[in-house]
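From the shared-data thread, chain only:
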Amino acid sequence: MKRIRGAGKLVCVMLLALWPAPSHLMAQANVQGQWTTLPYTMPINPIHATLVSTGKVLVVAGSGNYPPNKNYQAAIWDLQAGTITTQSVTWDMFCNGAVALPDGRTFIDGGTTQYNPFHGAANASVFDPVSNSLTDLPTMAHGRWYPTVTTLGDGRILTFSGLNETGITNTAVEIFTSASNTWSPEYKAGWTPPLYPRLHLLPNGKVFYSGSTTKSRYFDPSTHTWGVIATTNYASTRTYGSSVLFPLTPANNYKPVVMIIGGGNPATATTEIIDLSATTPAWQWGPSMSQPRIEMNAVILPSGKVLAVGGSASDENASTASLNADLYDPATNTFSAAGANAFARLYHSVALLLPDATVWLAGSNPKRGTYEPHMEIYQPAYLFNPDGTLATRPTIASAPSTIGYGGSFTLQTSDAANIASVVLIKAGSVTHAFDMDQRLVGLSYTAADAGDLTVNAPPNSNIAPPGYYLLFLLNSAGVPSVASVVQVTAGSDFTITTSPPLQGIVPGATATYMVQVVPSGGFGGTVNLSVNGVPSGATASFSTTSITGRGSSTLTINTTGLSPASFPSTYPLTVSASDGTLTRTDTVNLIVNSPGDFSLSASPTTLAVLKGTSGQFTIALVPSNGFVGTVNFTLTGSPGPNVTATFNPTSLTGSGSTTVTVQAASTAASSTSNLTITGTSGTVAHSTLVTLTVQ
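Structure, as tokens:
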């Protein structure tokens, strides 16, 4: 992992307030807000960004729109610490879809297996914000490059569109269930969607397709069928325009209204609005933005207003960049000025609402091999007094960690008498001009006393799909609090996972497992850990035997006294967590091998690669004497400048073969190198020699 630290601590608005601004800008801050550039940059191309349940931001780049880059990467931005920590990922997540799962993990769907023409990956993965780790999931039926994913009311995840593994648009819906890690059958749409279709879950449980093409449709998850319901007034495709579901509130009876904004090439400044509660829904023209926008972003603020930012009049043309941000007010159906950001934000730009009620703006990658690393923060006008100083914000003294449906909960605040609204905003997940799960849900409330609010929870999961939300209080002046992060969920429970699911060791060695407990539905109790199935002669211990709420423990199995009757011997271990009422288990396998041995062979042993092309060695692993362990591969030697070599896979268990792909850039120097491929099992290591010539 690589960690990059910003200039000091980033403590939300507090740090931004320390940076002086010209007096004329300060005077306008309470009208248009204020833009500021952060003092540190993003080390990877921010193709996709998700606000995770810890309040940090997960950034996914994969290859980052640069085909020679085989160091596929993601990053975690810690807003409070002002640090960005990068890590490698196992496959190219470039141009994936992503949303936050109900349990707070981030679901990553699809990606890239080939450039020019593009082919889509069938891979899926999940990011755990507690361990900051990614775990691969079962693959989809077919690949998806540029898919959209949407959380349904029951917590399942719908994925649609994207190019498949042969470069053809995937016209089937698949639905993922995280509780069982399973995919549904494919449900064929019968029509060809655009890439990254704009989808919104509605209060009736259906999914609304708003574009980018002209015919709008419903998808019914219960029947798996589509139907056309309206046609846009704008006659062309709104390519890389955005789409927003307006706030759902008790005051408007949770009426679903959707706005489509900008898009097209050349871009349009127009917008359209559709009231989906109407008997016959129809698109109506909305007000126009101040500038045309393709590759734009649209962000819902706690006030219910929508920030339209970035893009350009001509796609990927910075000379036509739209730098003047616009703020749409659904109450008045008007746009107003929202200041001007500093950097052109075109293809592959992202924007997210942060817990301090500011907006983060990053990225722009119209040219391969380069991207805009500077990041900007927008402080909306609601954070300022007329003289440009920071407004006093309401505070949340105490909020529940979880909220159920249909009930009520208590918020403690010293500002109870002056609160004008309470809102939930779903943690955002944005890429390619669209936030895939963005929504604002208003909550009704009463002031119980000077320090408490009794707040009514969302009535059902179609209005507020299960997951993590930012909970804001807004006072009578419209100033928002810093958000509390809360989980909206149906019931109290927890899950337990143990990794890795299988380990092979030799007698006398030690195996370690990571045991994680993830609460859901308001569970905050204490569970006690135990393990069954430990073989005679071995011992087991936990780093901690009890976990309260969410947490992890390390399970260590020591096989010093173990004498298996035969090799290999498999021992199923059952790890349990129990709070006295609920018990959850997970099973892993411990395989005890003879020390054994293995050999390696290479084919071919000599490889010539032309500059600008690639070639491959195949390395075969052949076990002997009962060896069934895991061998990890490394390469030593100098393949020369601008030459990369990657293993796929990087390790083998028992037997099989791995492929070493050598990629020589067009700028590589002519050379001949003797390369050593080494396989190491922890107890045994063997090598084989190959010769690489770059011509």
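Residues 110 and 144 are 5 Å apart (CA to CA).
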